[in-house]
Amino acid sequence: MNCPKNEFFLTDFSIDVQHEINNHILNAKSLIVLGVSLGKTQQLLFPLFEERLQRGDTIRIVLINPKSLACEISTKGKYVPVNLDGLRSQIQYTLDTLVKIQMHKKGILEIRLIDYPLGHGGILIDSDSRTGKFYLWYYGYKTRQANRPKFVISPMDGYWYEYFQEEVNAIWNSAVPYNP
Fold first, then answer.
1. Residue by residue, what is the 3-state secondary structure of 153-174?
2. Could you tell me the pTM of the whole model?
3. Quick one: pLDDT at residue 5?
């Protein structure tokens, strides 16, 4: 990749990139979302997930298992101390919200939990397509500004796109189905 660092390492997804994400989500053939609790993602994207599910689409989501050691480890990496029970509650709230979103919809919402602390979260869209994109946010260790840097990676990025695609698939395959 030959783009300047300030174009690759993003502080936040711009309004234009957020619109791009929204459009990709609505038109995607495949979608995998991963994160610790997806707190910010709920506000921004869950209405789009509902729309997709209403159409009969499939969405796959991986969260950290709130009952695992991974959850405890995730609290230790925060700059501002995070209460373990608080993080568990956040994750459970997301799980409960996802179950409610799925109700009365035609589509399939596959939720899995992983017992491993994630180094990043993200949205992998149409991973096997030349128009695929991975919108990734990095989980820093004890940094004041959480979930930074952010990246947008596409098949044009070659090795790195393939690397993250392989990792997301490995995370999905290692996670276990959530049964409320």
1. ECHHHCHHHHHHHHHHHHHHHH
2. 0.88
3. 44
